[in-house]
Design brief:
mainly alpha, about 85% helix, 10 helices, single chain
Length: about 230
């Protein structure tokens, strides 16, 4: 699906800037280096979705532990809540099901399972909660108090992160719109006045100018993405 969409868009972009079938085919080659960027973007989206689900899990675990439930029972309640809120096929529900099933089937160590989730997901908040719980298990600390305090701290951090993301999202939209506008204007000129820009496609100087414009648009988009990417 990625190659189908990306090659289609790149082909149209090459066709728009050069009015050449071969230029469109050449532009499709850019889908290979762009794949890594797409994978990074998609992975980040999945981590954000998992973090939103984990935020609700922390609320559920805090309430269950405060009511006197043990961690395995609290995770089972959190799984049911996650399935109701996000669906049984969501990442957070599947991960909780994996942990609960492993514990019920083999009595695996809950702390080790949570740490495994934290390392695989790449979400720092999950790893920090798992590390705090595992350390409490090993040292014989007050699991209830540690879980509650850790949950409160992480929930505060997640809330600040969500607010910051909401502010940045508007800037990301501005960057996208500013990058798309020149392409949209060029497409409009080609549709409304096909011969108006003929000199830009039929002369060497025109092709150089179009290539420079395309390079500037791409650089501006990449620069905008970079300056709006803030790690929290």
């Amino acid at each position: 699906m990625y190659y189908l969409v990306s090659c289609g868009c790149l082909f149209l972009l090459g066709l728009l800037f050069y009015r050449s079938f071969y230029a469109g085919l050449t532009a499709c080659l850019a889908s290979f280096p762009l794949e890594r960027m797409y994978q990074s973007f998609y992975a980040e989206k999945r981590r954000e979705t998992l973090l939103r689900g984990f935020k609700d899990v922390l609320y559920t675990i805090s309430g269950a532990v405060s009511a006197g439930r043990q961690m395995p029972s609290a995770l089972a309640i959190a799984r049911k809540s996650a399935e109701d809120s996000f669906g049984s096929e969501s990442d957070i529900a599947l991960e909780l099901s994996h942990i609960v099933d492993r514990y019920e089937g083999t009595h695996a160590d809950i702390g080790a399972l949570l740490e495994d989730l934290g390392s695989r997901s790449g979400v720092p908040e999950i790893g920090q909660f798992a590390s705090a719980y595992a350390a409490c298990q090993r040292c014989g600390g007050d699991v209830e108090e540690v879980c509650l305090k850790t949950a409160v701290l992480l929930l505060g951090r997640i809330s600040v992160r969500d607010e910051t993301k909401a502010l940045i999202s508007q800037k990301k939209l501005d960057v996208l719109l500013l990058s798309v506008m020149p392409v949209a204007v060029l497409a409009g000129l080609n549709v409304l006045g096909y011969g108006y820009l003929s000199v830009m496609y039929e002369t060497t100087a025109g092709r150089v100018v179009m290539s420079l414009c395309l390079a500037l648009i791409v650089c501006a988009l990449l620069w905008g993405i970079r300056i709006t990417r803030i790690d929290l």
